[in-house]
Amino acid sequence: MERKQILIERESSMQSKSTQKSGVFSKIKMIVFLAVVLAIVFFIGSTLGVNTLRQMRAETQVTRFVKALYPDQSVVGKICQGEDTDTDGYVSCAVTLTLRENPLSVQCPTILKSYLGTTCRLTPGTSPVNI
To answer: What are φ and ψ of residue 15, in 5° steps?
Structure first.
């Protein structure tokens, strides 16, 4: 009888230890899972945020640039992309002016370059005269 009781106690002790270990492992798994999810959310959010900031800064810069280049015309429409696809430090913009038939293709500096004094430039091959 005593021997059975000792075996039962040992068995229940082993079960409680394994339950404790599995509880610790499940907590570790949960923490790792949450860390991975947060990293993914942060990466996606920061990428989208930077692209939006680049786009907004480029649209501000392109308006100034075009007004200096064509003081007698006004900007009807403009659109800039937020991603520097060729990694030259510039994003592409298309600007429609009141007296110009075709949109003007302009490249504007990314955030850092724009604050260092770099200005927009016409996309190579773009004619600055009215067509």
So the answer is: -65, -40
- Provide the token pair at 2: 């005593």
Distance CA 48, CA 50 (A): 6
Q: What is the pLDDT along the chain (131 residues), one digit of tens a residue?
A: 566 666 566 666 655 555 555 667 788 888 888 888 888 877 776 666 778 888 888 999 999 999 998 899 999 999 999 888 888 889 999 999 998 888 899 999 887 777 787 889 998 877 666 54
Which pTM does this prediction carry?
0.59
In this structure, which amino acid lies at residue 52? Answer: T
Question: CA nearest 114: which of 47, 62, 46, 67?
Answer: 62
Alpha-carbon gap, residue 128 to 105, rounded angstroms: 9
Handedness of CA 41, 42, 48, 49 (dihedral sign): positive
